[in-house]
Write a structure and sequence with these properties.
Elements lengths: L15 H14 L1 E4 L5 H24 L36 E5 L2 E5 L1 E3 L5 E3 H5 L10 H14 L19 H21 L11 E11 L25 E7 L10 E3 L10 H10 L16 E5 L4 E3 L11 E2 L2 E2 L9 H4 L4 E10 L15 H7 L1
Antiparallel strand pairs: 1-9, 2-3, 3-6, 4-5, 6-13, 7-9, 7-13, 8-10, 11-12
Helix pairs in contact: 1-5, 4-5
Length: 374
């Protein structure tokens, strides 16, 4: 069943005493939900830039003859229900690119940071949409700068030090910046809870910055963890975790993330442990937070989780997977969500020594232009 237990802390307090209970809850359960991390206006700008970039990548692949069509999914018609959806690219790393991989049918992950000359990182939208000078396509660049700045100064009070003129704006933009700094202070608190933490100012980094999109008709994933344990003898504190930020409203219809609380703890036999807990009636129920745009779901890399099916192609039906669509509830309205993609911004933070080397393949879409010339 979906959970409605949202934490509103990052909009209330930034005192040291407040972050410790949140970190304790995270270590115990393996996840946290934070409401209203970013304002709807800033989240909408991020959504526009992310989805524009996603379709630009597909257009680029199509123009260079890598895919046969540039739609993320071609759905079967009502008269062809026995046929499967068609996708422009194959599944998995071997069929993907450094910038874009289809993880499972209809579920894409797009890297938002790419390596350019001299090992420097560049926001993908800036590299791919270079001809656009629109400020609406610079919000990801701002966000990355905020993150790197905040890792060095996580108290959220030093906005005047930012050099970019657009980031000097007052009002809502400054508030979103300060909200991110509070999140980064929580990140720091989570990692500083570890036994061997040394340099509190520089003990973690941004290891992944990406967009995850599930298209209408994508099915529920199998239960999985994003990474394993670093110790095979005892449970260690968290070394890596994700921050999922939905860029649109995320009701059950669009397939939010379902988690198994407590499953991040190390055990020699997870299946045996869960069966024993079920027999003792101690097995904790799963949670599936239905989030608003700009909320944040934070979860340990090791926790069991799965993306639920995107059933928005069925939004004109009265029910889906046992959940009735309430026409009086605007967030669950079938008119609002018919045939809708589910975009989620992903920030992954990790201890300095951890690098996720298997996330994307080495070949880049930007090498296609050179190959075609040859």
């Amino acid at each position: 069943m979906p959970t409605k237990e949202l934490l509103h802390g990052l909009t209330i307090s930034s005192t040291e005493q407040y972050y410790e209970p949140l970190a304790t809850s995270f270590h115990r359960d393996g996840y946290l939900v934070i409401s209203q991390l970013f304002s709807p206006s800033f989240t909408a700008k991020l959504s526009h830039e992310c989805t524009t970039t996603f379709h630009a990548v597909l257009d680029y692949l199509y123009e260079h003859g890598e895919i046969e069509f540039n739609d993320p999914v071609r759905s079967c018609s009502c008269a062809e229900l026995s046929k499967e959806n068609q996708y422009p690219m194959g599944q998995g790393l071997k069929n993907g690119y450094k910038e874009l991989v289809m993880r499972s049918p209809g579920r894409y992950e797009m890297a938002l940071l790419v390596n350019v000359a001299d090992g420097q990182e560049q926001v993908l939208s800036a590299e791919l949409l270079r001809g656009s000078n629109s400020q609406t396509l610079r919000n990801l660049e701002h966000l990355v700068q905020w993150i790197h700045h905040g890792i060095q100064d996580s108290d959220g009070s030093n906005i005047s030090n930012l050099k970019d003129g657009a980031m000097q704006e007052t009002g809502q933009l400054a508030q979103d910046y300060q909200q991110l700094q509070k999140l980064l202070h929580l990140v720091k608190t989570i990692f500083s809870d570890q036994e061997n933490s040394t340099n509190e100012e520089d003990n973690y980094h941004l290891v992944n910055f990406s967009l995850v999109i599930s298209t209408p008709g994508s099915e529920t994933q199998t239960w999985h963890a994003d990474g394993g344990h670093v110790s095979l003898t005892k449970h260690a504190s968290c070394h890596c975790f994700n921050v999922f930020i939905p860029l649109i409203e995320l009701p059950m219809l669009l397939g939010p993330t379902e988690l198994r609380p407590g499953s991040h703890y190390y055990t020699r036999d997870l299946t045996k442990m869960m069966l024993g807990a079920r027999a003792r009636k101690e097995l904790r129920p799963t949670v599936t937070p239905e989030l608003a745009m700009g909320d944040a779901l934070i979860f340990d890399y090791r926790i069991l989780h799965r993306g639920r099916a995107n059933l928005s192609h069925m939004a004109d039906s009265e029910s889906f997977e046992g959940c009735t669509i309430k026409q009086t509830n605007d967030r669950n309205s079938s008119k609002n969500h018919l045939g809708k993609d589910r975009p989620i911004l992903v920030m992954t933070f990790a201890r300095k020594w951890f690098v996720d080397v298997c996330n994307f393949p080495k070949r880049s879409i930007f090498a296609l232009a050179t190959m075609n010339k040859d």
